[in-house]
Amino acid sequence: MKDVYLKDMEIQWNDHLHMRDQTWKTLQYTILLFLGVVGLEIKEGTDQNVLLIGKLAILITSILGLLVAFHHRNRQSLKFDLIKLYEEKLELTPLIKPILDEYDKGFFSKVNTSTYIVVAQFGLLIVALAMLADHFS
Asked: pTM of the predicted model, to two decimals?
């Protein structure tokens, strides 16, 4: 049975890493789209309809990126629960727990990659709303 736990733990870790990569990519795409629209705004003579479509695209992309980030946060929590269970079944907890307990101290243990990505996507959503508000003023 230990082989089954080890194999599934490996699968859970790989899936976690894959999800984190996807979440980073959604943020990168939102940022690239934002930079492209800012470039179009700087360029003189850009059609206002093109700018409006670009700003709407940033808004939609940031909303979808935020949804992806929240979904992946929830799934990663499930995966970490499974990994923790497998660590217990494999009797790794006595080895790992002291290290994790030491890490879990302080402010910086509360900040993680998924939190950063959620905040960044939300920030881009706010900026997209401001850009749209400015477009119509």
From this structure: 0.86
